Recover the amino acids of this structure.
């Protein structure tokens, strides 16, 4: 079962994008309502979508200065 999900996750970018967007939406909702503390699903969704990679180089350069 684990191999099946791993195969779907790595070979199908649509599944990753859909999951990321759903987590971002639930994260935004959870910030407004008390579903989950601090909206960690928002951060998880952004991580899945690869947003962290875009800002990671800028943060590293900023800390090096």
């Amino acid at each position: 079962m684990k191999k099946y999900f791993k195969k779907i996750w790595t070979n199908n970018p649509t599944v990753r994008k859909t999951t990321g967007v759903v987590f971002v939406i639930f994260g935004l909702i959870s910030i407004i309502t008390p579903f989950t503390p601090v909206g960690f699903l928002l951060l998880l969704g952004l991580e899945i979508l690869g947003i962290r990679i875009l800002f990671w180089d800028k943060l590293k350069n900023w800390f090096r200065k």
